[in-house]
Amino acid sequence: MPKRNNVRVENRVWNRNQNNDNRYNGNQFVEHDDRAENLGKQMIRSKNTRRVSFKPSGAGGTGGRQFNNKQKNLNMAIKATIDEDDDMVDFPVGLNRDGNYHRNPNARFRRRGSPIPRTGHGPPGMRKLISGTSGWFLVTIPHGQKYDKEYVLRELQTLVTPDPFIPYYVKVESSAISFYLDDIKIAQALLNGDRSISLPDGFKMMIKVRCSIPQVQIDANLKEKMKLAMSKRYTPATKALDLTKFHRDVDLKEVFCGLFRPTIMLAAIDIIAENIPDLEALDLSDNKIHLLDHFKCLSKKLPCLKILHMADNKIISPNALDALKECQLVDLVLKGNPLRHRIRDETVYVSEIRKKFPKLLRLDFVNLPPPMGFDIPDEISIPSPKASYLCNHNGADIVRQFLEQYFIIFDSNNRQPLLDAYHEHAMFSLTVTHNSQQGQRLGSYLPHNRNIVRIKDYDARNRHLKCGRLPVVSFLSELPATQHDPHSFAVDLSLFTSKLILLTVTGLYRDKSKPSENICSFQRILAIVPSGSGFCIKNEMLHINNPTMAQIKAAFKSNAPSNAAPVAAPPTTTAPPSMDDATKLQMIQLMSQRSNMNLEWSEKCLMETNWDFDRAAFVFTELNNQQKIPPEAFAK
Amino acid sequence: MDAEIKSKIDQSYRTAEDFTKLYYESLDKRRHQMSRLYLDNGLLVWNGNEASGKDNIQKYFQELPSSSHNVVTLDTQPIIDESTEFAPTFIIQVSGNVKFQENPSKPFQQSFMITAQGDKWKIATDCFRLQDALSLLERK
After folding, report:
1. Confidence class for position A437, pLDDT limits 50, 70, 90
2. Given A255, A471, A498, B3, which residue has the most CB atoms within 10 angstroms?
3. Structural domains of chain A, ranges and CATH numbers in brackets
């Protein structure tokens, strides 16, 4: 949306019909009252003060409407002050002097349409530029295209000598030459020189100056240039990046890369986060930065940032710094910002800034005295987690064997052997935390979710409770194929008596029915009772949840044997005479583990020795010594 | 379904709902009364750390940072066995999110075994796990 800047220089009152230049139609010429919010306070004082009013103007029947317009304009003016992220910031400054009517086809509208008599304006030297929030000015030389560009620029240079004249992004257009300036002093000097230079064809050179921000498109090309410019400004030793006066970087001559513009700043932050995620010091001094809202992401993107220098920018309010609160800054520089003038008292200033950044040790290059505090720690840490807890160490072997056997069968293609693991009157139920934001990872479990927070009907709750060995195992058989990660297991044995064992297992598994996004987090609670010579499950509750990012990263990654999870220890039993699939699978895995062969060849080896583990191990050792085992047997 | 079993299951629902509400309200807001929820020889296993006996459990909770729990799922079953013949016993499983002090909230799972003692339900075992505590540990 086009937006209005707050700079009014002339006392001329613009009316919406009075577009003086077609290029700027429709995005300027608000009525006068926005000046109340403007920086041009002195203009208001010296000129049309009576127009600064929040009351509806009493001008005839249109009063109400004017009021609305005024309100709107005022709002927009306020918005403009707050939100300067638009390129078309165009308030004319010193345009359309009377003597130029013949050269400006639109000027005649003004004469006809203006309801308010012009109160006249001073000679060129009296017109004063007021710096907008951006601090950038667009200079236009109407009809300048008729002359040599270098010649025009040379002539302009004479107006500002001895100050340096640095025109940015010079453009020769169909009816004018235009360029940008970032220095109000130079811009003022040029404005004062309006129609003072005689051109070869007898005309006087017109010079128009107004507040405007150069436009730029953020694309891959620009990002590449920014990256290049940044890389030479980075000091790896101190992890410091100096982006002082970034737009003046020689590598960015062609494009306008002003960091005060949120989109550019965000692009810069992204580039830094991508390339120097551990950046500790950032210097953003002298970049005309006035908005900070978009800096909120800084603490997340650059978590190590401790030193931030923002001297000589245009930060007006200390409250704007709230956007940086999450950054753990120890060194901050704000000098040269307008906010410094707002708080005259040094002590108030320091305490105000410190409130926002409690860890601050240095402000504006001055070391701060240590802050006073209270003898209660800010943060209490939680006890560090342990992978397993056994209320009774005699239970360790039973738990280990039980879990080992259980998950080997559960992860196999056939869960029917689990019939032996469940009590005749076993109970089983399942709960799922479903978060639609995380996709359909757990969708297949949802129809069986017995979450009594959600399901209030007793019959429905009872339906989701599987009772009896057969219903439980047939239900388990229908759940997606899985592969559990024993290294992820947290095992808590919280009750171990001769009659009842209570065991909780928390960990990760992979849903083998899905090609991706298949890591799931689970917790099982098992109430185990003695049965014959062994044990069986009397009650089981299974909870399934989406994994956290940390879990996804850690899943199936651990190479070192987990020292705590009792289930991870290798089995020591040899195969019994008659074997089911689960036992075979267990042997294959053990064989693979001992021999370092892959599962396929381990199985082959065991099959050829009629599932005699010791013999298979012997044969393997023999053949391996003779180097008769092909390399593909070890390919995994 | 056996009528007796059904009545125990029905009883477990109300008990589990009331229990979790009381438990997390106490833990988050009235932590000083936590020990009253446990058997004298009750057991708390908190991320693998043990606190045994109601006094130790009370002490353990007092030293944890302030918390705010949000229960998302709840499930319960009665343990019907000769070992629980004279004292009705339920197991309860809770999952949800917990926020410690001003830290971001994290998923947790918790399992309880509660048992009747006179006219009061008491926690025999309480087993708490932050879902990704071990994964975070492994990365360090």
Report:
1. low
2. A255
3. 137-211 (3.30.70.330), 220-367 (3.80.10.10), 389-554 (3.10.450.50), 581-634 (1.10.8.10)
